[in-house]
């Protein structure tokens, strides 16, 4: 997949999303060297200014099948630092009518997928997006998610046992309110977990939460042809999007 200017989110949408995240959560991140910066100096300078480490816009949204998964990174793949796992992640997503479940709200599988993806993003180092896979995911559905909502999955890693290849994470799916409404669905990997991911805050409605065990694979499945890290990450995002889309269509047809 080629990364052209067209496949990136608009700078305005991104600025707006980051500003609102900062307002709500006091998000402050350390900038990285740039792969993206070479292509989009305006993105990089804004990222450096805002100190946001990483941006990974995804196509986990209403018109999943039409939307292309989009990806960009402001991390330096070759640096040692980039090999360090990120302990936090956020996915902002629009959950539309094509994700309707039997409850009349958003389908539980779509909710589980968002929670899983966010913990996966917090668990996997940028240098190795395929390293850890979900071994166990426990979801508590606390409130129906209304169709047509904007939601945030706030994830963090609370425990790692590298010797035993295990990593435990948690994520909360909360109402994004006005925070994400003017932006594309997107995701960020964070160098520090958000405090809000750890506990309920009075400010936001919690729709669901999940705990997960991720295990580092001993043997990787065969892949066809050589894949760059970027391609692997895009594939990962596409698979989450694809799952949500595939899940949604049969439900819509049967209702
Ligand atoms: C520039 C680029 C940037 C890109 C940056 C983007 C990042 C983008 C990230 C996106 C994130 C997407 C997130 C989606 C993630 C999936 O959806 S992955 C797909 C769903 N998961 C799977 O398909 C996994 C299938 N299962 C398996 O492959 C294997 O069972 C596993 C999980 C690898 C474990 O198998 P194994 O290696 O034989 O494990 P084994 O040695 O028996 O066990 C290791 C340890 O784990 C424990 N364990 C294993 N399984 C379990 C279990 N189910 N329950 C409890 N304990 C277990 C064992 O008890 C053992 O514990 P200790 O004895 O060491 O204490």
Automatic annotation (TrEMBL):
UniProt keywords, alphabetically: Apoptosis, Cell membrane, Cell projection, Cytoplasm, Fatty acid metabolism, Hydrolase, Lipid metabolism, Membrane, Mitochondrion, Mitochondrion inner membrane, Transit peptide
- The EC number(s) given in the record are 3.1.2.2
Which topology term describes how it sits in the membrane?
Peripheral membrane protein
Task: Name the Gene Ontology molecular function terms of this record.
Answer: hydrolase activity
Q: Which residues form a coiled coil?
A: none
> What processes does the entry annotate via GO biological process terms?
fatty acid metabolic process
Q: What reactions does this protein catalyze?
A: decanoyl-CoA + H2O = decanoate + CoA + H(+); (9Z)-octadecenoyl-CoA + H2O = (9Z)-octadecenoate + CoA + H(+); (5Z,8Z,11Z,14Z)-eicosatetraenoyl-CoA + H2O = (5Z,8Z,11Z,14Z)-eicosatetraenoate + CoA + H(+); octanoyl-CoA + H2O = octanoate + CoA + H(+)
Q: Which Gene3D superfamilies match?
A: Hotdog Thioesterase
Pfam families tied to this protein: 4HBT
Thioesterase domain sequence ranges? 104-157
Task: Name its cellular compartments.
Answer: Cell projection, Ruffle membrane; Cytoplasm; Mitochondrion inner membrane; Mitochondrion intermembrane space
Per the record, the major location class is: membrane
| GO-annotated cellular components | mitochondrial inner membrane; mitochondrial intermembrane space; ruffle membrane
Matching PANTHER family, A to Z?
ACYL-COENZYME A THIOESTERASE THEM4
By sequence similarity, the record places it as follows: Belongs to the THEM4/THEM5 thioesterase family.
- The protein in question is named Acyl-coenzyme A thioesterase THEM4
Organism, as annotated: Cyanidioschyzon merolae (strain NIES-3377 / 10D)
């Amino acid at each position: 997949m080629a990364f052209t200017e067209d496949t990136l989110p608009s700078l305005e949408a991104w600025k707006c999303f980051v500003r609102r995240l900062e307002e709500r959560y006091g998000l402050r991140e350390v900038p990285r060297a740039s792969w993206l910066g070479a292509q989009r100096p305006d993105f990089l300078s804004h990222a450096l200014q805002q100190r946001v480490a990483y941006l990974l816009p995804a196509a986990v949204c209403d018109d999943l099948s039409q939307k292309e998964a989009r990806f960009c990174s402001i991390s330096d793949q070759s640096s040692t630092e980039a090999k360090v796992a990120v302990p936090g992640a956020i996915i902002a997503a629009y959950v539309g009518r094509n994700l309707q479940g039997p409850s009349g709200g958003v389908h539980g599988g779509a909710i589980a997928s968002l929670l899983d993806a966010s913990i996966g993003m917090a668990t996997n180092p940028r240098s190795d997006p395929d390293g850890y896979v979900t071994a166990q995911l426990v979801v508590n559905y606390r409130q129906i998610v209304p169709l047509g909502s904007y939601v945030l999955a706030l994830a963090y890693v609370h425990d790692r046992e590298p010797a035993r290849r295990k990593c435990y994470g948690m994520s909360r799916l909360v109402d994004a309110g006005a925070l994400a409404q003017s932006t594309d669905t997107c995701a960020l990997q964070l160098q520090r977990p958000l405090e809000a991911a750890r506990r309920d805050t009075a400010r936001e409605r919690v729709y669901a939460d999940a705990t997960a065990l991720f295990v580092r694979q001993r043997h990787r499945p065969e892949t066809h042809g050589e894949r760059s890290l970027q391609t692997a990450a895009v594939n990962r995002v596409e698979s989450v999007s694809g799952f949500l889309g595939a899940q949604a269509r049969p439900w819509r047809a049967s209702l």
